[in-house]
Amino acid sequence: MKRSQFSSKRRKPAFQRRTASGAPPGMLCSDPGAHPTSMRVMAYGPGDLIEQPIGRADELRAIMGKYPVLWLDVAGLRDASTIGRIGEIFKLHSLALEDVVNVHQRPKVDEYGNCQFIVARMAPLHDGEATEQMSIFLGSNFVVTFQEALGDCLEPVRNRIRADKGQIRHAGCDHLAYAILDAIVDAYFPLIEGYGEKLDDIEDQAVERPQRRLLLDIYTIRRKILMLRRAMWPLREAVGHLQRQESPNVTQETRIFLRDLSDHTVQIIDMLETYRDLSLGLMDVYISSVGNRMNEIMKLLTIITTVFIPLTFLAGLYGMNYHTDVSAWNMPELTWKYGYLMCLCLMLFIALGQLWLFWKKGWFTNTWSAAKDGDRAETDAAEKTP
Predict the structure, then answer these.
(1) Vertex 47, ends 44 and 49: CA angle to 5°?
(2) Residue 50 lies in a domain
(3) Is residue 74 part of a domain?
(4) What is the pTM of this model?
(5) How many other β-carbons are positioned within 10 Å of the β-carbon of residue 277?
(6) How many structural domains are present in the chain?
């Protein structure tokens, strides 16, 4: 027997803090189950570009200072010693590095002396996954990004750097940080639009063919929308803070782009709020459709019961068998030659008369359609069930 999809399951906690209580602040304690750490560097200027993987953090010293912009991308947070060494090379604050390895952070912007520490959450690349933390350090001539695993939404940014498209190769590190944040925000749009299309399909099915599995689909999409909403609301505040905050690492020209990015976050939040309200409304639509279908079924059963009530009365009346030999007042129909046939014809006439009356009142039209839709829905659900 297939286990119910609504059965309770033990869920993993949202996060597990690995630093022990009372540990000194800034202590790096990576997750043994995290992805292996790999590094890739892109260093460029208006007329030059290098891109290469790096095996050890000390190899960065041969590149630093030779290019206007250096972008170090670190994927995987298992190796705490490498992350600590990167912090020493770029003079990153230990509290910020602690937030890097504890990947439950909400989006924010913090100032740490020579650089800004930005936390954003990337939309999942595959449906059903959780958001991924992206940590960004923005300095005067470097950008260091930490992500939980290989695979991200930043390949368009890398392609623009390789092809020298737009002004990214002619701008500074602040524009690169903006481009990374812009790619993260833009990745939410197709995901949210896909949820909107699914909600439209669920709405049509909830009105025409309400099924129990729709309830699970509504809850699943609503939970995903709430997950994205928790990631986007603080990101909007972080981008606004980065735009308004006076910092030598962010130029006035880049602030104009950050204002456009802030508009994108507002647009995404509006879409999420709309779809969240729609998912709540679909619950009412589903419940109303199920109630209407039940009413139609009850109407059909009532019609059948009403037809058989007079027939049951006649059958019970003539089943008493009071013979005329005892009294002249007892049932004379029992001695008629065609009494049995006449009784059957009377029952048939009453049943057909009632059915004709119900049909004239229009009771059969909606009831029969509802019954057919219910049968079709059950058939479709059975075919889709593995």
Answers:
(1) 35
(2) yes
(3) yes
(4) 0.74
(5) 10
(6) 2
User: Which of 164, 196, 224 is a domain's end point?
Assistant: 164
Q: Which residue has the higher pLDDT, 23 or 368?
A: 23
Residues 131-157: tens digit of each pLDDT: 899 999 999 899 999 999 888 899 999
Residue 76 region by backbone torsions, left for phi larger than 0, else alpha for psi between -120 and 50, else beta: left
Sheet of 108-112, strands arranged across: 48-54, 38-45, 69-75, 142-147, 132-138, 115-122, 108-112
For 163, how many CA atoms within 13 A lie in the half-sphere containing its CB?
A: 8
Q: Which domain holds residue 141?
A: 26-164
Q: What is the CATH number of the domain that holds 150?
A: 3.30.460.20
Residues above pLDDT 90, as percent of the chain: 40
Q: Considering the domain boundaries, does residue 268 fall inside one?
A: no
Tell me which residue of 238, 242, 269, 268 sits closest to 256, measured CA to CA: 242
Determine which helix (DSSP H) or strand (DSSP E) holds 284, and give its type and residue range: helix 252-318
- Higher-confidence residue: 290 or 56? 56
Number of H helices, E strands in the chain: 9, 7
CA angle (107 as vertex; 106, 113 as ends), nearest 5: 110
Tell me the three state secondary structure of residue 34: coil
Of 121, 147, 164, which residue sits at a domain end? 164
Residue 188 has, within 13 A of its CA and on its CB side, a CA count of: 30
Provide the 8-state DSSP code for 61. Answer: G
